[in-house]
Amino acid sequence: MPAVELTPPEAARWAARAGLPLPADRHAAVAATAHHIHSVVAVLRELDFGDTPPAPAYRVEQEEPDAAV
Which of 12, 15, 22, 44 has the most beta carbons within 10 angstroms of its beta carbon? Predict the structure, then answer.
């Protein structure tokens, strides 16, 4: 489901709601950045992680140091 792109005035409104002062000259840049982040997250949401265990199940394997070093 495609989302409607955030407009500069909406970016300013959301920033104000979050208590973040946003100068007028930054509205467009913040809206563009939010759109980019949303597009990246949208791609991640499409990935199939079917058999991937949750992160707490991950265990780092310790490698043996190279004796020749």
Answer: 12
Q: What share of the chain is helix, strand, coil (3-state, %, to 5)?
A: 50, 0, 50
For the residues 23-39, what does the mean pLDDT come to?
A: 94
Region of residue 7 (left: phi > 0; alpha: psi -120 to 50; beta: else): beta
Q: Count other C-beta atoms under 10 Å from residue 9's C-beta.
A: 11
Q: What is the CA radius of gyration of the chain?
A: 21
Global pTM? 0.62
Tokens of 52: 């991937």
